[in-house]
Write a structure and sequence with these properties.
By secondary structure, the chain is of the alpha+beta class. It is built from 13 helices and 13 strands. Strand 3 and strand 4 form a beta hairpin.
Length: 348
Amino acid sequence: MDTLELKERIINDDKIEKILEALEMHHINSNNDKYIKCGMPDGDRANSTVVYKDNLHVDAYTRNIKDAYGGSDIISLVSFVNGTYFSESIKWICDICGYDYYGQTVRKSRLAEWVRDMWKVQKDGSKEDDEKLSPVDEKLLTYYGKYVNDMFFKDGIDYKTQMEFGLGFDLFYNMITIPIRDELNFLVGIKGRLFKDKISDDESKYFYLQSCAKSKILFGLNKTKPYIKEKNEVIVVESEKAVMQLWSKGIKNAVAISGHILSDPQAQKLTHLGVPIVLAYDQGAEIGKNGQIDKKYYPNEFNKFLENQELYVIYDKSRKILKEKESPSDDHEKWVELYNNHRFKVRG
């Protein structure tokens, strides 16, 4: 469920007080038609916090509850009080209100639909893919089992890491299977990698055995959130394999976008982590169709973030360290060299 849908439903269903009670806010006073006053769970002031009924904006006079986008609303209040990541806060609110986090909510008003569509068009000139994330039955994984494989081991992913990420095998398609989980650790897809070294031109190396809305996923975030907080940095790579390669070397603060281009939902999820972001894409990601360097590529990626976002890029300007299409994570010695000497600050 996205934030606009959730807010609209909270307002329509008059659930604000229920949320505040669950947060253990005290002296909740809803006598005013426009707002509700209350106090923070660990505060003495009875009227330190004001929640507006028509838009869920929150004025917290004694605390800074603003999120990474500068927003101060019922979701950022939940994140502040519970100490949760914004997706976890949305799930918590859904549980309190009896809503299905993954399900289709009540039909949005025409105004809400218009606002969403206009925001998307202004953002990138087109509407974002509206495919919904939906959980997959965990029992599906019993079909593939949990198996380590030598192909990934030779590629720098140790057996322990393979087990930790739940890799399995599909005997019918002869594929290594990779469970795809969202940041709340729910299974939302299954990706397969053809189990052969040489791939012909008419074959696909990867495809989804159980499809998912991949533009809404940061692979690995379910496992790497605490390490991202500890390191105060998130490394963004292209592939699931790269996350596991880095994890095998003790670098556990990485996530993958499962492609070459960052989506707006992924950029938003990265921003909400509230830490510096390091883009570490494969060599040649910036190459255009004509084989020339696309000078707009990285700026287009950078522009998906806020102006004040602390942002870095790992980039082999010399083009002498990485081979074409090589990931910075493929060779650990190269990774150390790139991270230490070829990590450039973009902004922030």
